[in-house]
Amino acid sequence: MLALERLEVAIAGTRVLRGVDLAVAAGTRVALIGRNGAGKTTTLRAIMGLVPLAAGRLLFDDQDLGTVPAHRRTALAIGYAPEDRRLFAGFTVEENLRLPAEVLGLGAAETRRRLERVFAILPELVELRGRKAGGLSGGQGKMVALGRALMTGTRLVLLDEPFQGLAPALARRYAEALARLRAAEPALAVLITESNPDLLKPMVDAAYRIERGEVTPTAL
């Protein structure tokens, strides 16, 4: 499904990704493990077209993503939950969830179907749907960011450090949501970045370790 081939990214003249090879097959959960600054976020941003490639290829179902503008990549059924959530503080939770569907021009029936899908995976968002995003806790914001990613990510979802900063109870609820997602949608592929591999052991099928922008397969 998703393949990174000898991917290189440079930011301000400094190489951040160095010949990255990584694959995510349909229906698999793949972890990208590394310390802060190792290149995890840059890898996801490269997939979404938010940083330019210096070399290499990004393939999604054999389509070269390098030919797809960043603002059109979600239309390929890719969802992205960034580490810092990037919610619109003045919008309600439901408005934040609906926004990607509206940008994609989905009809009312399809938007409603996707919203119901999100609420089935993340039932705690039902009671938060009318609350302004600016009044959410950090953990609640992470849940909303996941829900927003699911509004577009019907084939592939990218989760950047989803457990960072979560209290143990919230981390457990987030893990439970990912388990519900897998049970409900076994064909969905998920790429998760994390600095602590122990958090991901029960939920991933394969893992890579990134260090100074270089990626190698690893066991958890």
Looking at CATH, the homologous superfamily is P-loop containing nucleotide triphosphate hydrolases
Structural class: alpha/beta
Q: Low-confidence parts, pLDDT < 50 over ≥5 residues? A: none
The secondary-structure element order is EEEHEEEHHHHEHEEE
Q: State the CATH class.
A: Alpha Beta
Q: In total, how many beta strands?
A: 10
Mean pLDDT: 94
Q: Give the overall shape, derived from the CA principal axes.
A: globular
Q: How far from one another are the termini?
A: 22 Å
Rg calculated over all Cα atoms: 17 Å
Strand order in space, largest sheet: 6-7-8-3-9-10
What share of the residues does DSSP label as strand, in percent? 25-35%
Description:
This protein has 220 residues and is of the alpha/beta class. The chain has one domain: Rossmann fold (3-Layer(aba) Sandwich). It is 32% helix and 27% strand. Helix 2 packs parallel to helix 5 and helix 3 (108-121) crosses helix 5. It starts with a strand and ends with a strand.
Labels describing this entry:
6 helices; 220 residues; alpha/beta; globular; four-stranded antiparallel sheet; 32% helix; 27% strand; Rossmann fold; six-stranded mixed sheet
Summarize the structure.
With 220 residues, the chain is an alpha/beta fold. The protein has helices spanning 40-47, 93-104, 108-121, 124-128, 138-152, 168-184, and strands at 2-11, 14-24, 29-33, 55-60, 63-64, 78-81, 156-160, 189-194, 206-211, 214-218.
